[in-house]
Write a structure and sequence with these properties.
The complex is a heterodimer of chains A (250) and B (180). Chain A is mainly alpha-helical and 250 residues long. Chain A has 7 helices and 4 strands; from the N terminus they run E-E-E-E-H-H-H-H-H-H-H. In chain A, helix 2 crosses helix 7 (209-245). Chain B is rod-shaped. Chain B has one domain. Chain B contains 3 helices and no strands. The chains are: A mainly alpha (250), B mainly alpha (180).
C-alpha cells in the first residue's frame, strides 16, 4: 500500500461523529485544518506580542506578510479594497500554511480535496456578488458590458462575459486543487519508483538514483507550487473583489 | 525492464485502492465542509479581531513615530539654523562695534593730545608774553632809571662845575634834549 499514490488523499476518521445520518466525523483533514489555524494563529500572536517599534525577527516576518498581502490587495482593488483585507489575508495564510503542511511526508494536504477549494472559491464568489450588488445596485451588471464594444457584437460579448464570470469559481478552485493533487501524486509516484527499483538488486539500487534525483527536484518544485498557488488564489481573489468595487473599471 | 516492472508494481498497488477517488468522494463532503467552516471561521475571527489590528497598529505607531521624528528633526534643524544666523549677526555686530570703538578711541586720543598740546602752547605763549612784558617793564624801568641817573649825574656835574643849583625840571629838559 505504501506505493499507492492515491492513498495519501484518503480521509481517515479520527473521531466518528454523525448527525441525522450525515457523517461529520473529525478526520485527518479536519485535524490538519485545525493544525493550520492553530499554528498560524499562535505564530502570529507570538510574533506580534512584542509590538516593538523596532521589530523582532518574528514580528518582521509578520509585518512582511501583512505588507505583502496588503500590497497585493491595494494594487488590484485600490485602497477601497482594504476593507476586504481580513478575508484576503486569512485566505492567503490558510491556503499557504495548509499547502506547506502537505509538504511533510505522511501529512495530509487539506487543499488537495476539491470540496475545500470549491468552498473557498465560492466564499469569494458570493462575497463578490453580494458586495457588488450592495455597493453598486444594478450598476454591478456593468461588469458584463465592456465599454467601447460595437453594438453589433454586444450580445456575444455579454454572453462571453457572463459565462466567464460564472466559470470563475470553477477555475479558481480547480487550479489550486489540481495543482496540489497532481504535484503530490507525481511526487509519490517517483518516490514509489525508488522503492520498487531498489527491490531489484544492485542494478535496481543504482537505477533508483534517477527517480531519487527527480524526487528531490520535484520536492523543491512542489514547495514553489505550494507558495505560488496560495499567491495565485489570493491574487485572483483581489481581482474579483476589484470587480465588485469597480464593475465598470475594465 | 526494471522500470516496466516497477511500473507494474505501482499499478498493482494502485488497483488495490477503493473505487472512488478520495477527493471526489461525496460521502466526505459534509464533514470537510463543516470542519472548514469551523476552522476557517475561527481563523478569520482571530485574524480580523486580533492579528490584523495588532499589525496595523504596530505599523501605524511606527509611521507616526517616523513622521514625528522627522518633524522634530526639521524643527531642530531650523532652530540650529536660526542660532547660527544669530551668531553670525552678533559676530558682525561685534566686529562693527569693535571697529567703532577703535575709531572713537583713536579720535579721542587725538583730540586729547591736541587739547593738551593747545593748552601747553597757550601756557607757553602766555609765559612768553609775560616774560616779554616783564622784560619790557624792566627795560622801561631801567630806561627810566637811566634818565633819573642822568638827571642826578647832570645836576651833580653842573653843581660841581658851575656851582649853582639847577631845578630838576631844567635838568630833565636839558638831558632829554641831549638824549634826543
Amino acid at each position: 500500500m505504501a506505493n499507492d499514490p492515491i492513498s495519501q488523499f484518503h480521509l481517515k476518521t479520527l473521531i466518528p461523529l454523525e448527525v441525522g445520518g450525515t457523517d461529520i466525523s473529525f478526520t485527518n483533514s479536519a485535524l490538519f485544518m485545525v493544525a493550520t489555524v492553530v499554528l498560524t494563529s499562535v505564530f502570529f500572536i507570538w510574533a506580534t506580542s512584542g509590538r516593538g517599534i523596532v521589530p523582532s525577527r518574528g514580528q518582521s516576518f509578520a509585518e512582511m506578510t501583512y505588507e505583502f498581502v496588503a500590497g497585493m490587495l491595494r494594487d488590484s482593488a485600490g485602497s477601497e479594497g482594504m476593507k476586504f483585507f481580513p478575508l484576503v489575508f486569512s485566505l492567503f495564510l490558510f491556503i499557504l500554511v495548509a499547502n506547506m503542511f502537505g509538504m511533510f511526508p505522511y501529512f495530509f494536504t487539506v487543499t488537495s480535496h476539491v470540496i475545500i477549494t470549491v468552498a473557498l472559491a465560492f466564499l469569494v464568489f458570493f462575497t463578490v456578488i453580494i458586495v457588488g450588488f450592495a455597493k453598486n445596485g444594478f450598476g454591478f451588471l456593468k461588469l458584463f458590458v465592456p465599454s467601447g464594444v460595437p453594438i453589433a457584437i454586444m450580445p456575444l460579448v455579454i454572453a462571453i462575459e457572463v459565462i466567464s464570470f460564472f466559470a470563475r469559481p470553477i477555475s479558481h478552485s480547480v487550479r489550486l486543487f489540481a495543482n496540489m493533487l497532481a504535484g503530490h501524486i507525481t511526487l509519490k509516484v517517483f518516490a514509489g519508483f525508488i522503492v520498487s527499483l531498489s527491490s531489484f538488486g544492485a542494478l535496481g539500487v543504482a537505477g533508483a538514483i534517477l527517480p531519487l534525483l527527480m524526487t528531490i527536484g520535484l520536492t523543491a518544485l512542489e514547495f514553489l507550487v505550494a507558495f505560488l498557488q496560495a499567491y495565485v488564489f489570493t491574487m485572483l481573489t483581489c481581482m474579483y473583489l476589484n470587480d465588485a468595487l469597480h464593475p465598470g473599471g475594465h | 525492464m526494471f522500470i516496466s516492472q516497477a511500473l507494474a508494481a505501482t499499478e498493482e498497488a494502485t488497483n488495490g485502492a477503493p473505487d472512488v477517488f478520495p477527493p471526489f468522494d461525496p460521502a466526505s463532503f459534509a464533514s470537510q465542509l463543516l470542519w472548514l467552516t469551523i476552522t476557517f471561521g475561527a481563523f478569520y475571527f482571530i485574524m480580523s479581531r486580533v492579528i490584523i489590528p495588532r499589525i496595523s497598529g504596530i505599523l501605524e505607531v511606527r509611521s507616526d513615530r517616523i513622521t514625528r521624528d522627522l518633524d522634530e528633526t526639521q524643527r531642530l534643524k531650523a532652530e540650529a539654523d536660526a542660532a547660527h544666523a544669530a551668531y553670525e549677526h552678533e559676530l558682525a555686530e561685534a566686529k562693527k562695534n569693535a571697529h567703532g570703538i577703535a575709531m572713537e578711541s583713536t579720535e579721542k586720543a587725538k583730540a586729547d593730545s591736541a587739547k593738551v598740546r593747545e593748552k601747553v602752547e597757550a601756557e607757553l605763549a602766555s609765559n612768553l608774553a609775560e616774560a616779554e612784558a616783564r622784560i619790557a617793564s624792566i627795560k622801561a624801568k631801567a630806561m627810566a632809571e637811566v634818565g633819573t641817573i642822568a638827571n642826578e649825574t647832570t645836576g651833580e656835574i653842573v653843581k660841581d662845575l658851575i656851582g649853582g643849583k639847577l631845578t630838576n625840571a631844567e635838568i630833565t629838559k636839558a638831558v632829554s634834549s641831549l638824549v634826543k
